[in-house]
Structures are given as C-alpha cells and as structure tokens.
Design goal:
Strand order of the largest sheet: 12-13-14-18-17-16-15
Number of domains: 2
Helix content: 10-25%
Shape: elongated
Radius of gyration: 26 Å
Strand content: 25-35%
Number of strands: 19
Structural class: alpha+beta
Length: about 475
Amino acid sequence: MTRKSLVSVLFIASLLLTGCASGRAGVLPAASAAGNDAASAVIEAEVQSPSTSMADLIPAEPEMESVKASEPAAVDPNSPRGVVEAFYGWYLKTARNGENILSLRSYRQSPYLSDYLIKTTDYLLDSFNNGAYDPFLCAQDTPYEMTVDGVFTSETGSRVLVRSDWEGHFLTVGLYQQGEDWLIDEIRCPASPADTAWAFYTWYLGYALHPHGMANGEISRNALADKAYRSSGFLSQRLVDEIDSLLTNQGGFNADPILGAQTTPLDFWVDAGPGDHEATVRLQYGPQSARYARLVMETTGSFWKIDQIHFDEIPAFDPAGAEMVDTSNWQELKDEQLGFSLRFPQGWVSEDADLSANPADDTMQRSIYLMPAADASKIQAQKAAPDPSMPAVVPTLYLDVQRATAEQLAAYYPTDSRERVEWQGNVLWVEREPGVVRYVLQSPLNPDLWLVFIDRVSEYAGREAQAADLDGVLLPMLASVSFTGGQ
C-alpha cells in the first residue's frame, strides 16, 4: 500500500459514506460471512464492568467476546490477524462500557494504530458535522461482534477482511510492518465498486492461503471446490450460477475464473473504473507478470455485488493492419535543441504542459498535448467552469520527451505489459495498462532521448468520441517521427 493512496481512501470514504449516517451498515455492500448466518445482535445496554485499560483488550466474559477467530488454531498476537482482533476486541469492549472513543480521542493511545492513521482520523473527525459515522466501524452504531474472515499478506503489507454480526456489514483493514510490529494503517469502508473489490479479493486469497496469513505460502483451502464463493456475499446470483455451471458442465476450469490463472498471485491492487460500476484489479504474479481483471458490478439498494469478471486479452500491436495516410500537408512539430520532429493533422493543436513545478532533476524535458482544436476549447471551458455532470475531456494524445537511461525510463513508467516491435527502422515499445497505451521511441542518435506517446482515450470507457479522432491518426504520426541528434 502507498501513503498517497491511503490519504485518499480515508477522506473519500468520508464523502461517500452518507448512507452510514442513517445507522448501522448504511451503504455497505451485502456480504454475509460463510457459516455465520446467525441473527445479528447489537448490545443496547451498558455493560457494568470496570473501565477498560489498554492491557485488558478482550472482555473476560465468554458470552461477551467481541472478536472471534474463525479458525480453531491459536492466533499469533503479533500477526496481522492478531493485531486486528486485539484492536477491535478493545474497541468494542470500551464502547460497550460507555466510553465515547471518538470524542475522547482515546484511539490515540492504541499501540495497534500507525501515527499516520491516528493523524488522518483526527483530521477526519475535525471535519465532521452532526450525524457522522465511526471511521473505525464504518457505521454509526456499535456491533456486538466483529470477525476476521480473511487475511492476505504480501511484501507490500497485509489486508484483513472484518465482518460484523450485522448482515452485509464489513470493512477491509490495511496494515504495514514496522520492525517486528504490524500496525493498522488504513480502514477501508465499502462505499464503491473498488472498495468491494478490495474486500472480495482479500477474502478470496485469504481463504486459499493459511488461515492466519500467508505463512510460507501454504495453500489450505479452495473456495471453488468448497463452493464457498456461493455464500461469500460479494457475488451476484447470476455470477454464482455462471460459476456453478462452468464447474458442473465443463468439469472444472483451465484457469481460475476469479484469478485468470492456475496459481495464486503474489499481490494485488485495485483501481476505480474505468466505468462508474466497475473496478480494475491488478493481480501480480511476478516482477513482470500481471493480469488485469475488470469487475462489473450491480447494485441492490446501496449494496455493490460483482456481476461480471472479465480478463481482457491484450491485443498485439499490428502496424501493417492500419491504413497509412499522406502526412505531407500535416503541421510540423520540431525541436532542434532536443533533436526530433513529427507531423500532426491540420485542425489539431499542440500545447506544452507547465513543468515548472517538477523537481530540478526530473528527466522529463517537455510534455506536449496534441488534440483537435475543438477538444482544446472544451478543456479550457472545463477549467473555467467545471461541470461534474459532464464527462471530462482530456488531451487526445500526450507526448512526453525524456532524457533518461533505460533504467530511469522504466522506473518513470512502470509496466507489466511491454511489446517490442521493429517498425519504420526504429524499435517501438508498446506498453499497456488499464485505460492507457504508451508508444515509446528511442533516438538512434542519442540513446538517452525518448519520445513517449501516451494514449488515454482508445481503451478508456466513455472516451469513444475522442478515440475516434485518434483512430487513423496515431500510426501516421508515429511513422512521421524523425531524429536529428539535437544539441
């Protein structure tokens, strides 16, 4: 997990979780834990017991146990699972004893929270008005019980799925390791398709691996063979039936339909989109090996459920399949100092991005927007009077001019999908990420000069009109590139 992404998670949750203010689960997606179908129970009366100290993390009374382990084996208290269970054990017992943890800010003394989470929670609470929710519980009320239902640990950290005894109420906890200690650094409340994707893949991978985490990568269970996906609560009935049918009629899968492979990934990451009801999951199988799953979701009330999982095949770059056009009457973009030139269509404009805020040692020399003049006018109008109801217009094509070694360039544009093509006497690298395609040309006269053409429209849902403008233009533009050596 990265700090930048964690900042957005907590604050976006505060904007999106308006349904939580109505009480209990609010807008949280429906997800009843497998094997935990007992009627939900919430403690309404104050428990008559001495005030809780930080050392007294779990209630003494067996019938008042706040957090239970779903596996019979002993839990390492220093593991991600142990830390999450201890924190929520203390949190629920303290809340039931009548202490208002948020008002008193007593979470600040918890040894299980990172300084980052404490500070961002302080900031979030300061921004709340009346009727806000508890960011540790993702609800207004306090559940009786919270249960760990999946742990996935990788080199980048650990994620833990936690469910309460309320039907459909869950949250995903992110932890990182500081020395020998695991600290809770993120609590993701389910408010969007991406949040549901985080929870589902944490559950699915946690189900397959050792019940207390990724201990030696031990595979202990199979959610497909056990049919556990049926009651996970994250899948629509249509998708459940589809997986049932595939298992029954085909006798199994060539690849796991949820992972798109026959093995378990080393890590995963989730991004929102490209569509409003979609999330993209990056499943990392090696340093240069990843698959991207596009999840399409449906809503039942305020609940998100996964209805389709697509593993889109990565198309090969085929310049011979595109009709080339005469570019002799196109406009010329020439940079004698850096040593390159290219042509772009009449009716298009080129605009340099402002790079003044970039670090002095940034390898980016220029960043140029190329687009039809009409799109440039729309972008200016967007800046002058933003309209959230209208789809955003972006430059049709970006051109980054880099002076960098191959290693620096690879670090600047990390990718898991790179194709090498010999074309027009040059080596062209085609790199693909969800919604983005990069075309990279290296100067044969100066090996540290690179032209990086970035297409953010052709494979991005909702930008089909701009993609049509680029179709038939991109390849001739790439073919028009020439290098002169520069100064």
